Amino acid sequence: MLPGNSYPELKKHKHLVGHWGTAWQNQKIDFAAFPGSILMTTNCIIQPMKSYKHRIFTRNAVGWSGVTHLGDGEDMKPLIDAALKEPGFVTTETKAKPITIGYGKDTILSVAGAVVDGVKVGAVKRFFFIGGCDGTEGERSYFTDIAKAVPEDGIILTAGCAKFRFNRLLEGQKVGPFPKVLDMGQCNDISGSIAVALALADAFKCGVNDLPLSFAVSWLEQKAVAQLLTCLSLGVKGIHLGPNLPSFVTPAVLDVLVKEFNLAPVSNNPRADFPGQLKPLQ
């Protein structure tokens, strides 16, 4: 819920003080170290460890055997009581560097003129969408490798927990007046990235596929299907998807996607996938 800290209505609440943890697959480490209670509202839950099973709760469609489920309309007293029994944070100090967030489509489009001008004068040469659902496979270092290799005049748009593979590595870097990494939110916010792409295409009087925009999408599970189909329905081509293709992509389906949409599985070599777009090996 990193982007939750930038939602205007949530920012009104002073007790929303920050973000804890990284991607979903690291929750056994992140949750064990968190000195409070935890409420799971999505299907990203992993079998809870004994060290925190007594202070984790579920709600809505998610659940786990042996974990207290809070039904619709039920108050949060069990969650609050569990939190009060925990030590909490003993200090407000942190060694973690702040992460800049809040670059949803409305924010970016509010400065679309400056973005377009940056492209016209050559300050921004290319945009890279690097994001999606993360996982545990070692091959997913591919997305970190791409982010590290984006040139000084390239801007990264990201949505989804794949961002945790590289957002801290590039924090503070800028491309002209713009942050190098624009965090557009969660996986579902890929629609915002598409809206930005469509607006830029309109500003430049060209099609989306004529923009200096590259897609490297981290694939994992069901909701990514809808995101991919949304991109394809809008005619977006040249998406690199991986580290593995969805199980429903049969050879016949893949043949259509390659021929009609130039869809490509990621390789183990980002520079081969995006020739001439990334910094050369040092």
Instruction: Summarize the helix and strand pattern as letters.
Output: HHEHEEHHHEHEHEEEHEHEHEH
Mean pLDDT, all residues: 89
- Low-confidence region ranges: none
Give the overall form. Answer: globular
What's the architecture of the largest domain, going by CATH?
Answer: 3-Layer(aba) Sandwich
Radius of gyration: 20 Å
Structural class: alpha/beta
What is CATH's topology name of the largest domain?
A: Rossmann fold
What is the helical fraction, as a range of percent?
25-40%
Tally the helices: what do you get?
12
Major sheet strand order = 8-5-4-9-10-11
Biggest sheet, open or closed, and with what strands and sense? 6 strands, parallel
Query: Per DSSP, what share of the residues sits in E-state strands of 2 or more residues?
Result: 5-15%
Count of spatially separate domains: 2
CATH class descriptor of the largest domain: Alpha Beta
Q: Termini, distance in Å?
A: 35 Å
How many strands in all? Answer: 11
Walk me through the topology.
Layout: H1 8-11, H2 27-33, E1 38-40, H3 50-53, E2 56-59, E3 68-70, H4 77-85, H5 105-110, H6 112-120, E4 126-132, H7 141-149, E5 154-158, H8 167-170, E6 174-175, E7 178-179, E8 181-183, H9 190-203, E9 213-218, H10 223-233, E10 239-242, H11 251-261, E11 264-265, H12 270-273
Parallel strand pairs: 1-2, 2-3, 4-5, 4-9, 5-8, 9-10, 10-11
Antiparallel strand pairs: 6-7
